[in-house]
Design goal:
Among the domains are: 431-540, Alpha-Beta Plaits; 623-711, Phosphorylase Kinase, domain 1 (2-Layer Sandwich); 718-933, Transferase(Phosphotransferase), domain 1, CATH 1.10.510.10. The chain has 17 helices and 48 strands. It has a 15-stranded mixed β-sheet. Helix 16 (878-888) packs antiparallel against helix 17 (899-912). The longest helix is centred in the middle third of the chain and has 27 residues, at 574-600. 44% of the residues are buried.
Amino acid sequence: MDQRIQVFLLLIFTPLHVLANHQTSIEDVTGLKSLMTLWANTPPSWGSLDPCEDGWDGIGCTNMRVVSLTLASMNLTGTLSGDIEQLSELQILDLSYNKGLTGPLPPEIGSLKKLTNIILVGCSFSGEIPPTIGSLQELVSLSLNSNRFSGKIPPSIGNLSKLYWLDLADNILDGSIPVSAGGEPGLDMLNHCKHFHLGMNKLSGQIPSRLFNSNMSLIHVLFERNELSGSIPSSLGLVNTLQVVRFDTNMLTGPIPASLSNLTSVSQMFLSNNKLSGPAPDLSGMTLLHYVDLSNNSFEISDIPPWFVTLKSLTTIIMEDTQLQGEIPAALFSLSNIQSVVLKNNQLNGTLDIGTPSSQLKVIDLQNNLIGEYKGNEGYSGTLILVKNPVCDETGASPASYCKISSSSDIPPYVTLPNNCVPSPCDSDQVSSPNCKCAYPYEGTLIFGAPTFSDLDNSTHYQQLEKALMNSFLSHQLNVDSVSLSNLTKDSLSYLRLSLAVFPATQGHFNRKEVSGISYLLSNQTFKPQKSFGPFYFLGGDYEYFAAETEVSSESKKSSNVAIIIGAAAGCSVLVLVLVLVGIYAIRQKRRASRAIDQNNPFGKWDVYNKSRGSVPELKGARSFSFEELMQYSNNFSEENDVGSGGYGKVYRGTLPTGKLIAIKRAHSESIQGGRQFRSEIELLSRVHHKNLVSLVGFCFDRGEQMLVYEYVANGTLKDSLSGKSGIKLDWQRRLKIALGTARGLAYLHELCQPPIIHRDIKSTNVLLDNNLSAKVADFGLSKSMGDSGRDHVSTQVKGTMGYMDPEYYITQRLTEKSDVYGFGVLMLEMLTARRPIEQGKYIVREVKLAMNKTKELYNLHEILDSAIGLGPTLKGLESFVDLAMNCVEEEGANRPTMSDVVKQIEYIMHLAGLNPNAKSASTSASYEDQASAKHPHSGEAFDYSGGFPPSKIEPL
């Protein structure tokens, strides 16, 4: 059959075949099949029938709709067709590091209204960026760097109100920078955006003054190596969030505006290789400046600016060919952080005195100046260059070392060393890893755009980077054994480049999903290096050593296509079509029923044979979320939604489609201790329901992740309020209500849950405050169920938080409800004093005991009571509150009250204070000053102190 006829029939009858054989949406299958026809080297799994059900590599699905397409470093070749608009639920598109992907971006990409991330780094796309991209209102990240895009920057990008990351660098874009005017949008409207990476293009014209304003959140403004002219706009000084500024290698003129001194958060500033004029700039206000390069400009002749010796954070100052004159103050060389001073090709004169230089100072380059004398310092071991100064030109002068330029390389070599092992001899293309295992690494290049350091021979920088990379890979459960860095270089733009090799932990090679995961972590900027490296991007290579996969042969595909055509054509018979549709309906109903069962029993595929997981969890009301759902609800786990962190991991704010706020507690790899503990916590949380306990909304154990989803509690932790961090004022009445709510929540756990539950980690960071300042007990990660045996204690390894821990439990390892009572007693004392349980080596229980005198007013506790509590006659019932707290921290558990007794006592104290214990708490609107800045606390840090109390920290009771 003619191939064109085959294709025609395939397109005509594919929808019918899809309906009969696929669970994935027809539109999505059609869109992906279209991409397959245009791309070579698609993953072998793409030959199977159903993208979602059969798990195509690089395809992420939610409810049988394709929501992510991530195929970085897959050696794809071809173009991106307009049929991608069929993937109408697509949120993430990452095709980075496929040099074979060419042609323009189709305008139809603007139809994908749910896209949050477009990441096409290091491909070969060309043509103009389609203006339709400005209609993607959910877009958070737009990374098109290192391609061949040309033409102007579309002004419509200014419509992307949620855009956080804009990277168009390393293309051939030209024209002016678009700003809003006459009703048209522009980049000045991107007030939410933190990254303008537009360097290495051909942008021209002036930098518009209205490009910057005080409402912006920018931290990186990178415009290096363009063709920009005119002056630096003074409006740049309005963006006080800036940290890195690069306008180097352009054609800028005029003086540096004085407003730049307002940028007090800037740590790296590059203005070199322009035509800037006027006096040398005053940067005295930039107190966090680490690295400054003003070289090769036409400033007026001037003495050394005073800020040379007042900016204590300076590591690197480069001002060659800038008309500087006079003597260099010795104090410059003794700045504690200074590493490099490069002032060559100026008119510096007099005597050079380096005084007592900083131990970090590695380079002083003053060649081609007018220095006539040098007062040496024998303790200085770094490089000093005075070539072409009078001090080196005197007749008969000895050839001092500083009068010669070393022929050695400026960039010291660096390579990751073996990790206490002997490298293995490897075959073919395999490489020995730092752990001396032969494997096929995934390789690429890390490029850092503005490092704060210039001591490139300091291996500590790179060792810390290796550690950060490994921590990031492991925290995302990637199959990585080790990483290696090598080939350190620094180019003409001061970009620091390092070759990266990532080694697999098993099998000696990665599979496609693993490479995709590693690539996405780097391309999506999920990995965050230490701040000293500055902004970065990654260029990955092709990976040719994928683990063995089940290949679908071309003959098999061809046979499948022919079968589809024949079957579809035969199905044109009315009778057959009716029968097929009836069968399809029955099958689909059966599958829907099966999916409904799976949703009601989300642990249906729980591996009961995995002993670390235990039996299938028994759930009561908790919902199972997929990874893609939580990624969507938290805006791709974005930095802006990061509301807290702790020993367990990070917490992200999210929003359900219903508008309900949630807190997503995402474990990092070190906190994942197997399915059994995760299952136990889910089971426990799903059966506790009380207004003073944080409720569990759901969970996720998809993609190797362990995430718990709670209700979002807006006013943070009790600790934040006691410390003043949250801006909430807690008077005596509010503290009583919070104590009562906390006690009621614990009493419910101890006496109304069947079986009873011991929280085991009562502390101020685990008590949350809602909009009405009602207390909610949180973080059940260490909670223990008493079981059905009727025992009055559980023998268990000692866990908890130091300072709140019951000493009887610590000594006997016998956990009872009275251990929670002890922790609550410590919490009561913390509420009275706003002091941490252990502060400067003093234990709060002991301090209160020593200060107490029951014969005096307020028990003589005036000096240790929190002043914000409102000292005076309003503290009715305080003595009774202290008595109750001290009763709770009795040494022997048998002498402590139960939590139900505690509840009754606090209710009585509230009556003494003239309060109704059952009244609803007041709103915080009158006193809550800074809710937006408060961190969310669901992450609570719990520690294992099975090794015992450090004797230097806790005094005996």
